[in-house]
Each structure stands twice: as structure tokens, then as C-alpha cells.
## 1
Amino acid sequence: MELIVARNREDLVKVRHEGTVALVPTMGALHEGHRSLIRQARVRADQVVVSIFVNPLQFGPNEDFSRYPRTFEADLDVCRAEGVDVVFHPSAEDMYTPDRQVSVSAGEMGRVVEGAFRPGHFDGVLTVVLKLFNLVRPDLAVFGQKDAQQLALIRRMVADLDLPIEILGAPTVREPDGLALSSRNRYLSDDDRRVALALSRALRTGAAELAPAEIRRAARAVLDAAGPELTVDYLALVDPATFAEVSDDYVGLAVLAVAAKVGGTRLIDNVTLTLNPA
Ligand code: AMP
């Protein structure tokens, strides 16, 4: 089947739905992580829709919106190779009219951890994801665990706003040396990349411990050892559903999350681990 490219909402409404529809929202510059989401969607759905939209609403004034990588033709090749049925690639003008007023609030959960460093980010994410859900009308949607707080907030939005959409989480795809794949990795110089490995190394080292205090200490030691080229925004050990910091006697699954800047590039990563197992 020929790949359909819908460049605006009028194009999209002309696309006929066939059976189960899966949506994979992305900002493009597609890599193996995105491919794994598309494959997960392909297994579950008759029709796979990939959206490619660099959403201005989720970038802060001093963030990388204007220089975010845009590689649309290469992204289409990836989508063709993965058997995607529809690519939705709207313009910002098509998504957001100048008279718009109403948006989604991520609540308190959108203001902690990653949200504390990116005010308004998760409101922008949830607003565009809800719009994409309404425009595409999928039965299911796939998101990466790489953006663990985003995934948790999307699950929260679906529950709180009664959206009839199944949310699937996909594991983080990494380079052989541990670096989590990200569209922003292309900003990294060779030296930056070596420094950036401290993120995944810190998470692995932390995950080898069992108690919260030891996990935090072990991971922090690795980040500190990376030197002044690494500026850590946060290292957080949180409940995966709420992103609230866990207490020392917490039992069960938790997320160890980190964000840091390397040479002007901000990277995030996380792992899921089990705390204080019996
Ligand atoms: P982005 O294009 O960065 O907005 O990401 C689009 C989707 O791909 C999100 O659901 C991300 O969590 C997911 N994603 C990004 N990087 C990875 C990765 N390394 N492994 C798995 N999923 C990823």
C-alpha cells in the first residue's frame, strides 16, 4: 500500500479508517526508538498513523524549537520502510489558530521533576496529544518509556478525561554503549557524546542497588565523576504513576530519572527498578 501523506486537517479527514487504528505521535528526526514504537503499533493495528509535528507549545522561550532537527524526507523513507499507512504532518498554523484559548493542564504532576525545569512543557504536550487524538481518532496510541513522565501524564489524561484510547508504552531503545537514542543526540560532538554516557551509566549503577538512599547515592556519584562538562538538572527516584519522590521504605516499581546538559544539549533518561523487594 502506498503511504498517504496528510499535510493538514482537510487531508486527514479524507483518509478512510480501516479496522483498528494506531497513532504514533512524534516530532520527526526519526530513529530506531521511533521505529520500535511503529513496529509495536503495526503488530496491534490494521492502520498505523505516524504524526510528525514539532509542537511549538511544548518548547520554552529559551529552548531549541527553531533548531530542532527537521528531516521530513528521510522520515518518510523510514515510515515507508516500516509499513506505515498514513503520515500526518500539519503546519503550526494548521494546528493552532490565532484565536485559540483553551488548553489542557497537566496539573501538579506536570510541575514536578521534568516539569519543574520546563514550565508549561507538559501542558503543551497534553494539549497537542489531545488534539492529535481528536483529529486521528485512534483506537490505541504508542509512547516511549524514554519520556517516562510524559507517558505517565498521558495515561493520567486518558483516565481523567475518559478518552476511549488504549495507551501502550514501549521500552527505551539504546545504543550498544547505553546512550538512549534521541533526536537531540545529533547535536552532540564526539566529546559531548562521551560525557553524555554518564547518564545511562549513572542509571545502571543506581539500579544495581536495592534501597532508595543507596540508589540515589550510587547514581549521583557517577554523575559527579563526569566532571564540569555535565550540568545535572535533576536526579529523581519517583513513583512511576505520580512522579512523586519515593520514601526510603517504599516497596515496588520506581523510576530513576535524570536530566543533564552536555555542551548546550539537554538530555533525559530513566530506568524502571524494583525497590526494597521482599
Ligand atoms: P519525540 O519525537 O522525541 O517527541 O518522540 C516521539 C516518541 O518516541 C515518544 O513517545 C518518545 O518517548 C519515543 N522515543 C523517543 N526516543 C526513544 C527511544 N530511545 N526509545 C523508545 N522510544 C523513544
Note: The longest helix spans residues 190-207.
## 2
Amino acid sequence: MSETKEPFKTLIIGSGPAGYTAAIYAARAELGPVMIEGMQPGGQLMDTTDVENYPGYPEGVNGPQMMVDFRKQAARFNTDIRSGFVTKVDFSGPVHKVWVNDKEELEAHSIIISTGASAMWLGLENEIRLRDMGGGVSACAVCDGFFYKGQEVAIVGAGDTAAEEATYLSKMCKKVHMLVRRDEMRASKIMQQRVFDTENIEVHWNTETVDVLGENGVEGIRVINNKTKEESTIDVTGFFVAIGHKPNTDIFKGWLDMDETGYLLPKPGTSKSNVDGVFISGDAGDKVYRQAVTAAGTGCMAALDAERYLAAQGIH
Ligand code: NDP
């Protein structure tokens, strides 16, 4: 087994499906990978219930359980998994530098980025205030739905996440108001159908949220129909936001090529970034597919690309 000492051969930033898969491949190739777990160890799947589309689990699997399995598999091959959050990087030299929690500086010959993406918010003053005080605003139905058992809630968004979470909430809440800003949904047909087939989900088309009401907890929302311009209040005690995600790539600004929304741009057909020895995997570089299985696939690509890069550099 290879020894793990600085500069590390491979350092992995982030611990979702991409990071763990990269770790499994890198560890089995004796690259002695060190993984910095990041803000949400396990990544977005920690906020999910049933995953039914990951091959190999014919009965489906619970998201957090799947990440426990990924972690165990990475640890089995001696990945050095460390808690902490990478706050700064320096990719100017042949050996790359990263800072963990603003203080600890680590060096590595190759870096695999698997920092994923985070939930987006509407940005309304009361939405953020109530979110920060734990007052009934959430971006994770699976984490927080339980608190609204038997109550009325609202969810914003019309993608697969919103459809999935509305369906999830409908099982425990009295009624779910789904606020869709256009007259159609972006969600896949099968997910939309689940919403339409659920009696206690009411879809409000062409509807936008103007304000979240309540001092210490959500008491209602103010909405506007953007066609008729009619405003109304819906009495709810929980407000869920499911409007997409932002890639966690701010620390790479100025070093790595990214699009206008911050998604990293790997060279087509590879995991290579514009910096030698820095590889991109998972949702941080994928605004199109964003699935656990595609993240895992690109994690594998990044580890294989890192292995070839290190071999070409004569680093064994
Ligand atoms: P998406 O980007 O697909 O959808 C975001 C939704 O939020 C859109 O309907 C968008 O509306 C709406 N929205 C954005 N901003 C606002 C706003 N300010 N006010 C109101 N509505 C807003 O994100 P998702 O998180 O739903 O999905 C991300 C990816 O993950 C997708 O590829 C999806 O297929 C996948 N996914 C798959 C699942 C599965 O297969 N089980 C489960 C969950 C996600 P508009 O349409 O008008 O732009």
C-alpha cells in the first residue's frame, strides 16, 4: 500500500458520489488519496429518501444509506477521509495547494474536484430571515417534512426535485400547494403525473411568491398570479424551496474555466480542467445530467485521468 504524505499524490475535494468513486479508484491504484469531506459530508444525497434509479439496487436505496456504503467502500481501500472545508486554492505551481478551514495548508500533485452543488433560494428578505432562524423555511422536504405532519405547506419549483418533494410532503401533510411560475412544469412526465395523481397537491400555475408571512415562524405566503397580476395569501406553516442548485465552485474562480453560472468546464470527453493535474467530477462540472450515477462515473474518470497524469509526471 502506498504511503500518504505531503505532497499527496491525489487530494479529493468533496464527498458525494463523485468524490467517493474517485477515492475508490484512486485508492485501488495506490495513489493514497486524501479526501476533504466538505460542508455536507455525503453531499446532496444526504437530503434524499429513496433513490430508485441507481443501478444495482433493484428495490431502491435510501440516499444517506447509499452514502454510508460509498464511504465504507472508499475507506476499505484506505482513503484518508478528513473532515474540513477547503476555503482557498492555489493552482499556480506544478504542486497544487489547498487550505482547509482557512488555516491548514496541504499540497498535492493532483487534485480531484467533487464539490457538487448547493440549493438555491428565492432571496426574499423574510424567506432568508425565517430560514436562518429555523422558522419553517427549508430546501429539504425529506429533512424537514416531518415537522409539518398534518399541516398545510407550500413548495416552490417545477423541476424533478419540486415534484418529488411535493409528492413526499403529500404523504404526511394535509395539503401541499405547489407554486409553478410558468404554465408548464420542467419535471419529467412521470414525476408530473405523480403530482397530478395526488389528491392533496394543488398546483398553482403562473404563480410567484411575493413574501413569506410570519414573525417567528411561517404563517402564510403572499403570491401573485403573473398573468392576471392578482395577489392572494395562502395559509401555510411550512415553505419549501426547490428551485435548483448552484455549483460549489467559488474557490476556483480565477483558476479554472467556468461558465457564467459557475459550472466548471472539463475538456470534452475527459475530466481535465484547464490546469494540469486538476480534474473535475460530479455536479460541480455538470449542469446537464446531475445524477448520482453520472457523478460517480465522472469521479471514476477523474481518478483514471489523475493516475495517468501522475504516471506521465513520473510520480509513483
Ligand atoms: P431544475 O433546475 O431542473 O428546476 C428548477 C425549477 O425551479 C424549475 O422549474 C424553475 O422554473 C424553478 N425556478 C427557478 N427559479 C425560480 C424562481 N425564482 N421562482 C420560482 N421558480 C423557480 O432543478 P431540480 O433541482 O428540480 O433538478 C435538478 C436536476 O436533478 C435535474 O436534472 C433533475 O432532472 C434531476 N433530478 C432527478 C431526480 C430523479 O430522477 N429522481 C430527482 C430530483 C432531481 P422554470 O421551469 O420556469 O425555469
Note: Residues 121-241 form a domain with the FAD/NAD(P)-binding domain fold (CATH 3.50.50.60).
